[in-house]
């Protein structure tokens, strides 16, 4: 067991070991405090003993049986969770994995997800369907095949409606491939992203992948480890018992980027990485090392992070997710970090201890291995203190209640462009979560030269939290508390004080007031353009009841329909 902070501090003081940590914290090199923590952990015998969990047919069968019980009492949420955990623990080609796929196909059939039911049946058959369940599976397959035809025709109809919706076909920015040429970067003492020309409401400005991302603990049994997608046909990692993927493609990419190493220490991550930041820190470090291609490059790169690197960086270094240096360019001007540094040093040291035990991962020579460990400590500590995670909230279809909802349980990721945009409680940009990707569109008319702003806490009309909750989130993400009209909640009392001009009122009544937008779904591009025109007209009265009405009942409803179609996130019930 890893010692608790209070017990551990007392332990250090009694043995005179604490001074090593505090002395190292005074140095500019982050690796010193991590190496000091590693030395203290080894000297005190306090390193946690964490055994790797191997695939286990007996453990898989236990989860499957629990799923069967949940199935009988009609708890579809728990049924899916248990069957997915059964898949996680089932050895490859074992009877357990075949039964897990077969049983999951049964709950998929019951929930009328016939196409997805057929996928699990096909997977079971490819693995070699057990003879004692073969006839039952064939019967289910025949029935699901008949019923899936209507399901497929409905999907084709929706595809035809949405194929051109939000088509990201603008000329790409030459410096930042994920961004539009409608934006440009101004570099002075720091970087600033501004409008390269006047931008209309609804204009797409970026479509960015995360560098790395991680699922919330509650989302793990229902989500892809790599792209966040909540799928009913998740497949297990073959190396560890804690990860699922939505497809073979995601699995292969994830293994290539970082999971081939992460997979070998998943139990360590599960045991000591309690925060989102710690999980992202490990993934980000592993991916960065992989992208460097050599320990020599890792070691040299680790000496230049934050403000030091920003001063010498290009636009690509700063904002391009495919550039390894983009994650070393988070601002490191945060105050009061020594408490976080002390706690993080032991977490970073523990990971380095276990990475050193992966055969062939670190250099073989003593001197180079020492430099590599210091580089890992330097990068991990920098990530722990300064790499700000961006919340990711997905639109999810609830098949049990035939509704969709915005999942309140946030995942997180590092976005080198979107994550570094100026934070504003009243932003001019709107972020649309598309699983691992984020789409950025203009929410207000933006004049040429104006700085682009986002709200990482969430738009105030969608995340209507009490002020103390919003302030708490702000402090966690940015280390400060805002006192603006949004964060104090004062804007709510001012809604009726905003009066529209005659032009605004006429446009609102003429184009929006009595219309249900979703009735016009077959004219989505025109409907969306019309909504954006109304939002633009009302942008100077964005606290008015009319603006709130257009935003919530029209703009966001269409955005939600788009998210639901593009992301295809599905669960059997609301995440609990």
UniProtKB/TrEMBL annotation:
Q: Which PANTHER family match?
A: SET AND MYND DOMAIN-CONTAINING PROTEIN 4, SET AND MYND DOMAIN-CONTAINING PROTEIN 4-LIKE PROTEIN
Q: Which PROSITE patterns match?
A: SET (PS50280), TPR (PS50005), ZF_MYND_1 (PS01360)
Give the TPR repeat ranges. 60-93
Q: Does the keyword Transcription apply?
A: no
Q: Extract one GO molecular function annotation from the record.
A: histone deacetylase binding
Keywords carried by this UniProt record: Metal-binding, Methyltransferase, S-adenosyl-L-methionine, TPR repeat, Transferase, Zinc, Zinc-finger
UniProt superkingdom: Eukaryota
Species assigned in the record? Parnassius mnemosyne
- InterPro entries xrefs: SET-MYND_domain_protein, SET_dom, SET_dom_sf, TPR-like_helical_dom_sf, TPR_rpt, Znf_MYND
A Gene Ontology cellular component where this protein is annotated is: cytoplasm
- Annotated SET domain ranges read 168-457
Q: What is this protein called?
A: SET domain-containing protein
Q: Set out the biological process GO terms recorded for this chain's protein.
A: methylation
């Amino acid at each position: 067991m890893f010692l608790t902070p209070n017990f551990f501090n007392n332990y250090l003081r009694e043995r005179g070991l604490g001074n090593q940590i505090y002395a190292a914290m005074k140095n500019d090199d982050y690796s010193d405090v991590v190496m000091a923590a590693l030395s203290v952990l080894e000297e005190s015998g306090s390193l946690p003993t964490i055994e790797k969990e191997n695939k286990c047919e007996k453990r898989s069968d236990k989860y499957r049986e629990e799923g069967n019980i949940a199935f009988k009492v009609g708890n579809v949420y728990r049924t899916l969770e248990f069957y997915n955990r059964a898949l996680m623990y089932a050895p490859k080609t074992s009877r357990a994995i075949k039964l897990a796929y077969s049983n999951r196909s049964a709950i998929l059939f019951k929930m009328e997800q016939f196409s997805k039911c057929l996928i699990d049946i096909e997977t079971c058959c490819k693995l070699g369907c057990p003879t004692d369940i073969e006839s039952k599976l064939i019967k289910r397959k025949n029935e699901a095949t008949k019923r899936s035809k209507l399901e497929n025709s409905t999907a084709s109809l929706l595809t035809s409606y949405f194929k051109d919706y939000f088509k990201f076909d603008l000329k790409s920015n030459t410096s930042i491939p994920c961004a539009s040429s409608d934006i440009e970067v101004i570099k002075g003492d720091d970087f600033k992203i501004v409008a390269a020309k006047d931008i209309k409401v609804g204009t797409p400005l970026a479509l960015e992948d995360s560098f790395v991302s991680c699922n919330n603990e509650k989302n793990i049994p229902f989500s892809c480890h790599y792209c966040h997608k909540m799928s009913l046909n998740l497949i297990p990692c073959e190396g560890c018992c804690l990860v699922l993927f939505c497809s073979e493609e995601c699995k292969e990419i994830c293994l290539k980027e970082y999971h081939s190493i992460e997979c070998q220490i998943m139990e360590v991550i599960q045991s000591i990485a309690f925060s989102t930041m710690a999980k992202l820190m490990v993934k980000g470090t592993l991916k960065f090392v992989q992208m460097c291609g050599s320990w020599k490059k890792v070691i040299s790169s680790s000496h230049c992070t934050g403000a030091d690197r920003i001063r010498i960086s290009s636009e690509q270094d700063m904002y391009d997710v495919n550039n390894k240096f983009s994650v070393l360019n988070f601002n490191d001007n945060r105050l009061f970090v020594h408490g976080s540094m002390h706690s993080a040093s032991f977490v970073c040291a523990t990971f380095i201890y276990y990475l050193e035990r992966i055969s062939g991962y670190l250099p073989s020579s003593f001197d180079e291995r020492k430099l590599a460990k210091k580089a890992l400590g330097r990068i991990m500590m920098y990530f722990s203190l300064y790499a700000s995670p961006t919340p990711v909230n997905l639109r999810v279809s609830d098949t049990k209640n035939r509704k969709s909802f915005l999942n309140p349980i946030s995942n997180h990721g590092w976005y080198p462009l979107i994550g570094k945009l100026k934070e504003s409680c009243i932003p001019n940009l709107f972020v649309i979560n598309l699983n691992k990707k984020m789409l950025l569109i203009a929410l207000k008319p933006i004049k040429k030269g104006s700085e682009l702003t986002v709200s990482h806490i969430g738009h105030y009309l969608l995340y209507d939290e009490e002020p103390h909750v919003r302030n708490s989130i702000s402090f966690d993400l940015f280390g400060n508390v805002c006192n603006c009209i949004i964060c104090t909640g004062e804007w709510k009392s001012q809604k009726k004080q905003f009066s529209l001009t005659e032009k605004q009122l006429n446009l609102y009544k003429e184009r929006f007031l009595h219309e249900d937008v979703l009735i016009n779904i077959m004219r989505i591009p025109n409907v969306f353009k019309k909504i954006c025109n109304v939002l633009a007209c009302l942008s100077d009265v964005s606290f008015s009841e009319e603006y709130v009405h257009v935003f919530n009942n029209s703009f966001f409803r269409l955005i939600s329909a788009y998210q639901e179609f593009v992301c295809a996130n599905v669960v059997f019930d609301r995440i609990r």
